Amino acid sequence: MDLFNQFFVDPFVLMADIPDLLLQTVWEGFVSGVLYALIALGFVLIYKASGVFNFAQGIMVVFAALALVSLHEVGVPAWLAVILTLGIMALLAIGVERIVLRKLVNQHDAILLMATIGLTLFLEGLGETIFGGEPKSMITEELGLPTGVSDWEVFGGLVSFQHIDIAAVVIAVIMVAGLALFFNYSRIGRALRAVADDHQAALSVGISLNQIWAIVWFAAGVVALVTGIMWGARSDVSFALEVIALKALAVLILGGFTSIPGAIVGGLIIGIGEKVFEVYWGAIFGGGVEAWFAYVLALIFLLFRPQGLFGEKIIERV
Amino acid sequence: MFYREAGQFKTSYKSDSAIFPILQDRVGLAIIIFVAAVVIPVFGNDLFLNSIMIPFLIFTLATIGLNILTGYCGQLSLGTGAFMGVGAYSCYKLATIFPEVSILIHILLSGFFAAAVGVVFGLPSLRIKGLYLAITTLAAQFFLEWAFVRVAWLYNYNDSGAIQNVPQKLFGIQITGAAAEPVTRYMLVLGIVIMFTWLTSNVIRGRIGRSWMMIRDMDIAAELMGIKPLNAKLSAFAMSSYLCGVSGAMLVFFWLGSVEAESFSINLSFQILFMVIIGGMGSLIGCFMGAAFIFVLPLLIRAVTRGVGLDISGAMIEHISTMSIGALIIFFLIVEPHGLARLWQIAKEKLRNWPFPYG
Fold first, then answer.
1. Minimal Cβ distance to A291: which of B129, B146, B327
2. pLDDT tens sequence across B322-339
3. What is the CATH number of the domain that holds A233?
4. Within-domain flag for A193
């Protein structure tokens, strides 16, 4: 009975007693959920277009952010540094397509996954060699991002909103909207969707797969840069971020590998879920439950719906 | 050339189903075992045994474990490190609760705990497949890693949070603990690894192994032909985790002596997965080759950079070796996606036909 109370009564009593704490927790979860969703978005873009499960998305986030900060450190103005970093991501996209993907067309899923894990190691080593292993702080102010805090009095308490968090949410919304417009109305976007739908049919109407893959990796690179800036501004830029990026995998499971709305909804569920769970239920387990909550939630969820929230129904034939 | 089966006739069913039907293979194996069991212990120095041979054999066993699951049964897993951890921690608990029982028995028993945990986390595989399953095994990885840190009972509430090995003697010879000679530990590890390799090769050739391979090749078709996916998948998870658990226990008791939960992190899982892929999925000899390659490569890179006399820091060498392993993995996947074992097979095929290009 005591245990029952601990699990099913006390947390809710606490929530009702101190509503501002709940609101603060949900907001924090919401923001990290948005960032999970952004990382997951990079995965989905590449998976849809090339069927490659891009494990390297997490390290691409770190790599882009580090490149940006390091360029600024050597005296390049902030906005030029952003453009140069975009150039680096474009080169990376072309390189990956030329050197890795083109050679591995039609290989088994697991082989492609392994190739991206290899890419992860390569980028990690390269990043550490060039930029050094120590954490760096993001050039938030130079990029014109807000840094203050606003407090909001509500329910007799205070809920504080970091301005950078608000900016992160706004930028994420703009970017997702931009991507949606790009996919639906531009010529390249339509070609991307055609490739995602059916590789062979796309080839037969004259769409170049190689070109599309390079473009889609570049798009994922842009998403990675934005994610890196936002995440870096909240904490700092370091390789530890890579482990956090693994959580995006759990997000993908919830949302389904092929669905952009799924990535966003999944990200928010995981982000809010793990913060609320940590604050209200974490103590029962002895704390630190954030490390596994996302994966266990995803696992339980998958038992009931193997294709994710918005994934395409899996049909198997012999 | 010298590798031919011409003139070797099989005159009984027994010889037809031998593991090594070709004489040269048997001779080669005998030489390898002789080198491993006699030449290396006699001529190898402590450093070589301790920092290369022992970890290589331990990782090989874990690689065989993962290869059963991924290479033979087709279930991708990223939780190997955690299953090794279960073996290590349960062995530590057993050894401290029953100090009078031999450590070798504890090591063999601790595998069963890992197997039980593996079966529990293998249950989702009945409904989830492929990459989705790979990610759910991350749940095992992170949950168990968390448990190793947070559940103080597992490391007997000591302050460091690490588990140490328990010094023990067998027939008057120190086998674990700081006083144990590397040669003793090497021989024990070698014995265990050879025993399990032999056992695995027979399981794989038998009914159970065939049912795993059917599940891997096409699970629905296998089910229609009367293979129970429940039995096949869970037995693969159990045996795989058992071997990983034994390997994890050996990692603590025969190699490192003291480990913390971070040793069984996701990076270890990846490392073992690399060994499987580079060695070759679905090949036992590939496990040895993959483990040797991935484990020895960083050492080699370090030795070469030091030998050339480049004045670079240790951290830099670390970064460069990470980078080159990444590049090599990609290179290997492009050149030979079926791993080193496939190269070995091709070489044998060429030798058979030599000097003609076709047989």
1. B146
2. 888 888 888 888 888 788
3. 1.10.3470
4. yes
